[in-house]
Design brief:
By secondary structure, the chain is of the alpha/beta class. The protein is built from 6 helices and 8 strands, in the order H-E-E-E-H-H-H-H-E-E-E-E-E-H. A hairpin with a 5-residue loop joins strand 7 and strand 8.
């Protein structure tokens, strides 16, 4: 009987939200906001398409100044840290390069609370994008997370994933929603299609569509 109860509790936890499943246990998110709901999208959130260094010239709305090569180096290190034996030789290289060390310090400060395990290279830019967005959205008012899949009610089939979610701490409501891509224009086109699919999902479920592209005053 106890095993049946445990199974039911597990199912209840996974499907706490009928339309959203978080892929990360992000403890930086206010507890009341961790179970994402359609009501979080009652107002038209703005969109952000976040790229790496040079992203603005490729059509992204925001960029973080990390090169693809440096992102790959950081990924190999943090993947070794979270999936096996830490690569201390690669760490030495990172700590002796000013740009790599800058981004290493940002990532190492927050990746555990945000529950990144670096299974994919793009997670490097996701951590850096979250850090960068906090310059526009003060942490005492907003929270920034991502890695949330959406699906039909209680369905195991994923429709898509939200990379970036900026919400208000008081109401949990979405302010900005976006995609993060390490690639070039072809990946930007893919990101736009993914966001369009998510917008259609929201509208189909009586939530608000999006309200345009977010423009940071820093760019």
């Amino acid at each position: 009987m106890s095993s049946i109860v445990a199974l039911l509790v597990g199912i209840s936890t996974v499907w706490a939200s009928p339309y959203f499943t978080s892929l990360r246990n992000d403890v930086s998110v206010p507890e009341k906001c961790r179970d994402m709901k359609l009501s979080f999208y009652s107002l038209p959130a703005e969109l952000v398409f976040f790229g790496r260094k040079g992203g603005l010239s490729m059509g992204f709305s925001m960029e973080y100044p990390v090169s693809r090569q440096n992102a790959t180096t950081l990924w190999h290190y943090f993947k070794s840290l979270t999936h096996g034996e830490e690569d201390v030789f690669l760490l030495d290289k990172i700590l002796n390069d000013p740009e790599l060390k800058r981004d290493y310090d940002i990532i190492v400060h927050s990746f555990e609370d945000q529950d990144f395990d670096f299974a994919s290279e793009g997670e490097i830019l996701e951590v850096l994008a979250i850090h960068d967005l906090y310059q526009d959205f003060p942490e005492n008012i907003y929270y920034i997370t991502g890695g949330v899949e959406y699906h039909e009610s209680h369905s195991p089939m994923t429709i898509g994933e939200v990379d970036i979610f900026v919400g208000r701490r008081d109401t949990c409501e979405a302010v900005v929603v976006g995609e993060v891509k390490l690639g070039r224009r072809t990946t930007l086109n893919k990101a736009k299609k993914q966001i369009h699919r998510f917008e259609n999902f929201l509208i189909d479920h009586n939530a608000s569509g999006f309200g345009g592209i977010y423009k940071s005053s820093r760019f």
